[in-house]
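Appendix B. One record, verbatim.
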Amino acid sequence: AEIGNLTKLEQLYLNNNQIKNIPIEIFNLKNLITLNLSNNQITIVPKEISNLSNLEVLTLNNNKINLLPIN
């Protein structure tokens, strides 16, 4: 199953995976409360992060972020 189809998922831990881009399907997980993407190679946080309206904990430490969404 694609991760975007896991609509009831509330916690997702993708830390320590060498991820360079946040998979766009993650932004369909409307019930997500915790998202941990720490210790990867992420450089951009897309504006679609705002689609995660229930998100309470977003962990992005130890990445290479150089662009955050303005809105």
